[in-house]
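[job 4471] stage=fold_predict status=RUNNING
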Amino acid sequence: MGDTKEQHILALKVMRLTKPSLVNSTPLTCEQKDVPNAALMKSKDGPDGHRIAIEESLILPQSSGNIFLGETFSSYVIVHNDSDELASNVLIKAELQTGSTRVLVSDPDSVPKPSLDPGHLIDCMVTHEVKELGVHILVCSVQYINAADERKFFRKFFKFQVLKPLDVKTKAYNVESDIYLEAQIQNIMPSPMFLHSVALQPAAEYTSEDLSTMKLHKLSDDTPEHSQVFGELAFLNSQDSRQYLYRLSPKSDLDTFKPSNVVGKLEVIWKTNLGEQGRLQTSQLSRKPPPARDIEVKVLDICDEAVCGKSFPLKLSIRNMTSADMDLRVKEEPTKEASIFLDGLSGSRLGVVGPMQAVTISLRFVAFSAGVHLIQGLSLFDSISVKAHPLVPLPSVYVVSPDEFHLQER
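[job 4471] inference complete, writing structure tokens
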């Protein structure tokens, strides 16, 4: 529709540029012993001798069709002189308007055409990568000077809807200083798609590793070859989904590392039908911050198995995560369920540990029953703040009886 009902000597037409689609037909099949089988075998065959469902012909789009977020919107704009008058200084301008933005999609450096003779036309093509959902309006305006030297102006509006192509769900898990990000991608388009790439762009504080790939045999230059766990073809039917897993690790040393709740962005590139490409980038993905801990415990070394009644070692790294000094002592308070006990005196002093500093300690334990048992009941007492900090998490240990140990040695 136009601004007014005034008659103009120029006509404006807009066509959306879309690729054609393949013609689908119902395949004809029959048993090999049936009479029509010989005739079907002479026709264009599929791998099994039956006519396949896709024809060699193409069908042109009958409407503007749907456009999805991340795809490129392309249109062909024509201004034709329908009258017998000469138009001069003809200029076409195209803008794409959404609920929040207004973007110029025509050439900003275009200059007016000096003259447009009767029966002639000028045209231009506009393209724009769609980055917002919802209603979009293509506003095409034309200004010119008619034969009476009057400046004229009119415009038309073309409305279309941008739909959501993918449903992306993410979950983040905190494992010590690392973050595991799980991403589920579902195709909610009515047609299949080919996933060209799915990549995580980590935040500046992290490096990322794609755990959805497998390392295969090494090439001649000793470079490992990677393959997707889904196979060679990343093909998604409508409503199908895939899950990807990434591990994010701190870039810097833990002594200087400042954890961030922002983990990065996920970028998905896909292709549909006859190769139309779409690209979608999520907003910044975040995680729930792990609960604040005054002390961080890491297991550095532990035996594969322990013998009942014999002492075994455990090596730990203790890090002060606060901004104050700690004067730490190891204390044991065994529980009723405990089967593993500290081999040594409770209350041994570790010394003063500064803010964000770590100390390595070696402890010895004794187990009194066979089986898999959790080391528990230990705490670190800070004599400066007069506060006890549970020594968790600690590992479980596989304990064998002395008789079973001797049998294994034999």
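[job 4471] summary: The chain is about 5% helix and 55% strand.
[job 4471] exit 0
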